[in-house]
Amino acid sequence: MSVMNVRRRLIPAAAAASLGLGALTACSSDSAASGNTDKFDVVASFYPMAFLAQQIGGDHANVTSLTEPGQEPHDLEISTQQRAQLEEADAALYLKGLQPAVDEAVGQTGIKTRIDAATLTHLEDHGTGGHSHEGEEGHSEEDEHGRDPHVWLDPVKYAEIAQGVGKAFEKADPDHAADYKKNTEALVTKLNGLNSEFENGLKDTKTKVFFTNHAAFGYLAERYGLTQEAISGIDPESEPSGARVRELQQEAKADGVTTVFYETLVSDKTAKTLARDANLKTDVLDPLEGITDSSRGEDYFQVMESNLKALQKALGAK
Fold first, then answer.
1. What is the pLDDT of residue 146?
2. What is the DSSP letter of 205?
3. Distances 24 to 13, 187, 290, 298 between C-alpha atoms, Å
4. Is 272 helix (H, G, I), strand (E, B) or coil?
5. Per DSSP, which regions of 76-129 are E strands?
6. Cα(195)–Cα(222) distance, integer angstroms
7. Which of 64, 179, 206, 232 has the most crowded Cβ, counting Cβ within 10 A?
8. Beta strands in the chain, from DSSP E residues, in sequence order
9. Computed from CA positions of residues 242, 247, 252, 258, in that sequence, does the dihedral angle turn out positive or negative?
10. Pairing state between β 61-65 and 113-116
11. In this predicted structure, what is the pLDDT of residue 243?
12. What pLDDT shows up at residue 248?
């Protein structure tokens, strides 16, 4: 059984609806506010896309997200109400291959501006075994083409996507093109700064290897010369096999690994079991698929800063 197939929502959708979106105040999950407003109405598939839309759209955009705060995005199923949201929107911003239900719904609507973030940068194959999502039903495009969709965790690739989204907004809403261009440039500048922080913060570390229960950090690892070792094929709610624990114990000793990372939207049981059996620490490395009250930060930049600090501590940054 693959990791993604058994990922659990820790916060039910109904309860999640009551949680705040942190700094993403321009976003709404209320379908009544999603279309036919006097603004540029954008429906985004999940948090990283909604954040881009809000940052670039600014005061001119009315941004809604199909994925509720606290909802694991791979589990998303599109309701009739959400299909209506898409039909009424001026634009849809999504990442093809991450959420098959969204891909299908967008394809079936008559929405004029469809912005697929996967076409705005180069998606890569991050290998097999512990570093891939092979066999995961939740990543249909990835299974078919071996492509990893988690591009937003690489600030450089996220900036490339931002530039493409900005151009799409300018074309779809030319009356506010100048503002979209200005907002895009400001966002890209911030992302470039974040990239520099990661480069400087991770260039001199005792080890380059980190363990995680979700193979979401391939782009981040590749960008900064790290090695991600994902606990692939293990149910997050089950005990890891003795053989896998021994394998990780050996690698931890050989590579100086100190920490098993887990994330906020799925169970931490597997990570803590592995850490206990292998005498390792645990910490959060957030794949930023959603922002909740338990997130270490209120927006993309704050959570990425927290991720950097967690990596620096775990890798022994000098």
1. 66
2. B
3. 18, 15, 11, 8
4. helix
5. 91-94, 113-116
6. 13
7. 64
8. 27-28, 40-44, 61-65, 91-94, 113-116, 209-212, 227-230, 259-262, 281-284
9. negative
10. unpaired
11. 80
12. 84
